[in-house]
Amino acid sequence: MTNIVLLASSTLILVGIVVVAATRNIIKIMLGIQTMSLGSVLMLAYAFSQSKQISRDVVVIIGIATAISEVAIMTALLLYWFRFKTVDTRTIESVGG
Description:
Layout: H1 2-22, H2 26-50, H3 56-84, H4 92-95
């Protein structure tokens, strides 16, 4: 069971890295970041479950922080889409600010 959890979390992190590195679509980049964060939460949950300390609260706080960051990213993406009607990262340079 130990190897399966570590393999699954490592795979999620690596898939997220590959997705972020391989695309210029900001929605795919956001999904890659979300995959990496879920893999890291899984790895931390497993690490805390193996320790003899109270870990449920820490994992819940990390999960909540991950969910909040994903909502913030999605909100920024939606606002960008509604204003510029594109999610291509090449056009972000031409937006100015």
